[in-house]
Design a protein that fits this description.
22% of the residues lie in helices and 43% in strands. The chain is of the alpha+beta class and 99 residues long. It is globular, with a radius of gyration of 19 Å. It starts with a helix and ends with a strand.
Length: 99
């Protein structure tokens, strides 16, 4: 099969674009904010980020570790207005630290 130079160039641009985007999507990130809502039934946490006032809603995984001080707590113990650090990895919550 013969490819034109234009088709090959477009294909290479797409591959390199994905290579540039993909590493950022895998990086760990911490969002600091204030809890706006907790829903234990749906295992979701809604926070307002401190620096941008952007609202986020996260699905809390069964593997998410939630701590307050040196104590591990449950999602039900996280309260509205708590200040939190939410640690994300690959777009999922790995840990929540209640301050």
């Amino acid at each position: 099969m013969k490819y034109s130079g234009k088709a090959l160039a477009i294909g290479l641009m797409m591959v390199f674009s994905l290579a540039l985007i993909a590493p950022g999507a895998q990086e760990a990130k911490t969002i600091t904010g204030v809890v706006k809502a907790v829903d234990v039934a749906t295992q979701t946490l809604q926070i307002t980020e401190d620096t941008t006032n952007k609202e986020y809603t996260f699905k809390v995984e069964s593997t998410t570790v939630i701590t307050k001080g040196d104590k591990t707590i449950t999602l039900a113990e996280v309260k509205t207005a708590d200040k939190v650090d939410v640690m994300l990895e690959q777009g999922k919550i790995k840990a929540i630290e209640v301050k």
